[in-house]
Design a protein that fits this description.
The protein is an alpha/beta fold. Helices cover 62% and strands 10% of the residues. The chain has 20 helices and twelve strands. It has a six-stranded mixed sheet with strand order 6-9-10-3-11-12. A four-stranded antiparallel sheet has the order 2-1-4-5, with no helix packed on it. Helix 6 packs antiparallel against helix 11 (270-312) and helix 15 crosses helix 17. 36% of the residues are buried.
Length: 579
């Protein structure tokens, strides 16, 4: 885990190394100050030696200012190192998530991935800053102070050898019991994020069904779980301070008592007793600060483990080393394809799929809910890999292509259309960031999106809210189709992507496809038979298997499932819903 995290320091390594060096210099200067104070009291003030007072006083000022300067420098360098480390962590997480397949994303959940990018990274950042500064300074301060204390008086310094193990064991026991509690609580954070995310995203549904009270109750219950978790953990961690204060007070009382006796017996000077008390404070303060670092490490350890899970996760779909860089054409073939989401041949949702689609053909897919229409087309751009058999594009197994090359040639408009915050033009340019204005307008004309875009005062510069909430469902679908067309793909897949547009507009879009992109293979998944009846061929899916293939007329004669769907729709009773 540590090795994986340290790789993310990268260009900030020099700051991470420089910070402990500056801290070490600061600590050495700080340790010498009580020793100089003892010398000033015993050899300057008690002896009325002004020369010694001036000499030691100047040294005290130099060491104090030096300690301050190096402290400030170490703080600034540590802040830069930790902020850079956090930046690289977020970047590493985000970049790796971009390479995830759908199954990888499903493994973690969206809410959990967001929590790891935010809360978990912040916790690790704070812990890292403490480690390269406080966790370096305090052990050094502890060791140097002990050495200086033993130099002054060995017998009195033995008190520290009893106090330090007592305090250390107590802090260790607290830490080991608190860590599992923090680890469990952070998993509940994912649940809270999921609740908030669902509620904000579905706020219109919540208000429509007047379920605000139910959602508030769900949020409060999850929030209470987090409260209870942190309360138990922090209640245990809170024992740090009482334990520390008790130890500090006992040590100071013992030093003052035995030190006073030693002064009376002339075996200890006043200056030496003063410096011993200062070193006692430094030693015990270093332990207190180390306990704070320990607490932060406890909190961040759970976060670090969750971050590393994302960083080391490898996509189960990736390009081969010698992958093919060019797609010859848009022909598609399924050869003995079986597919299971759990990679189990006994639990397949697609069975014995054998299918050939010529380049440039228009193919319709009809099937009931759960017939795996969407799953079938997702195998083409390798959003999932087949469990057995093969899918070929341009005569080549899709697993032999470079992923980016393959997906650039397969443009897919999903069931759930997504628009991002930005202008209409910025959203369309996801299809081709270098597209000219003429190409953008042409794509929108083909998708029949220009009809409503031209009614907006700012036209293509109209701002789209996150998720496209300020445009209708049909408008959103047409924008997504235009975006897909801008890629100029060899294969265009529409997964129920015209369900929110009227039949006339749907017909015009399909006409534009025939005229504008005749050489592009077009696959149209639809609920309405009218959306696919003019296709070169129509595939009927039933329970994950091909029930029939043919033209509209052929299927009406030979396929009972297709005939039943057609008759039900002609009567206005649409049997099928979304896949």
């Amino acid at each position: 885990m540590i090795k994986t995290l340290m790789k993310q320091i990268k260009e900030y390594k020099k700051y991470a190394i420089l910070s402990p060096i500056l801290v070490a210099i600061e600590t050495i200067m700080e340790v010498f100050i009580p020793y100089l104070m003892a010398y000033l009291i015993d050899n300057g003030i008690n002896k009325n030696d002004m020369a010694a007072i001036y000499k030691i006083g100047i040294l005290l000022i130099i060491f104090s200012i030096g300690s301050l300067i190096f402290g400030i420098l170490s703080g600034r360098v540590a802040a830069k190192a930790s902020a850079g480390f956090a930046k690289n962590l977020r970047k590493g997480l985000f970049y790796n998530v971009q390479n995830f397949s759908f199954s990888n994303i499903d493994k973690f959940s969206t809410a959990s991935i967001i929590t790891r990018h935010t809360t978990d990274v912040t916790n690790v950042q704070m812990a890292f800053q403490m480690i390269i500064r406080i966790a370096v300074k305090m052990p050094l301060l502890l060791i140097f102070s002990l050495i200086m204390a033993f130099t002054i008086n060995v017998k009195l310094s033995l008190i520290f050898l009893v106090a330090v193990p007592f305090l250390g064991i107590g802090l260790y026991l607290i830490a080991t019991k608190a860590h599992p509690m923090f680890e469990h609580t952070f998993t509940i954070y994912d649940k809270l994020n999921a609740t908030v995310q669902e509620n904000v995203k579905g706020i219109r549904v919540v208000k429509s069904y007047v379920t605000e009270d139910k959602e508030i109750e769900k949020f409060n219950n999850t929030s209470k779980e987090i409260y209870d978790g942190f309360y138990k953990a922090e209640k245990l961690v809170a024992l740090n301070n009482p334990l520390m204060q008790f130890t500090v007070n006992v040590v100071i009382i013992l030093i003052a008592w035995f030190g006073g006796v030693s002064i009376i017996n002339n075996t200890l000077t006043t200056g030496e007793l003063t410096s011993l008390i200062s070193y006692a404070m430094q030693i015990l303060m270093s332990l207190m600060m180390l306990s704070m670092v320990l607490v932060m490490i406890m909190i961040s350890r759970a976060s670090a483990e969750r971050i590393v899970e994302i960083l080391v996760e490898e996509s189960d779909i990736k390009s081969k080393d010698n992958s093919i860089k060019k797609v010859k054409n848009g022909s598609i073939s399924f050869e003995n394809v079986n597919f299971s989401y759990v990679n189990d041949e006994k639990k397949t949702c697609l069975k014995d799929i054998n299918l050939y689609i010529k380049s440039g053909e228009t193919v319709g897919i009809i099937g009931g809910t759960g017939s795996s229409k969407t799953t079938l087309v997702q195998l083409i751009p390798r959003l999932f890999d087949v469990t057995s058999g093969s899918v070929k594009v341009g005569g080549v197994d899709v697993r032999d292509y470079d992923l980016n090359v393959l997906r650039n040639e397969v443009s897919m408009v999903l069931q759930k259309n997504v628009l991002f915050s930005g202008t209409i033009k910025e959203n369309l340019c996801w299809g081709d960031e270098n597209a000219s204005d003429e190409e953008i307008i042409k794509a929108c004309e083909s998708a029949r999106a220009d009809e409503f875009i031209n009614t907006f005062p700012k036209r293509y510069d109209t701002y789209i809210e996150q998720g496209g909430t300020n445009v209708s469902g049909g408008q959103k679908q047409r924008l997504c189709i235009a975006r897909a067309l801008l890629k100029k793909p060899k294969i265009l897949i529409l997964d129920d992507s015209t369900s929110a547009v009227d039949t006339k507009t749907d017909s015009l879009i399909r006409k534009a496809f025939r005229e504008d992109i005749p050489n592009t293979t077009k696959i149209i998944i639809a609920q309405r038979i009218s959306s696919v009846e003019d296709s070169d061929k129509i595939i009927v899916l039933e329970n994950g298997q091909i029930d029939g293939i043919g033209t509209h007329e052929e299927l009406l004669k030979n396929n009972e499932v297709y005939k039943e769907v057609y008759n039900s729709q002609m009567k206005g009773d649409d049997k099928f819903g979304e896949a």
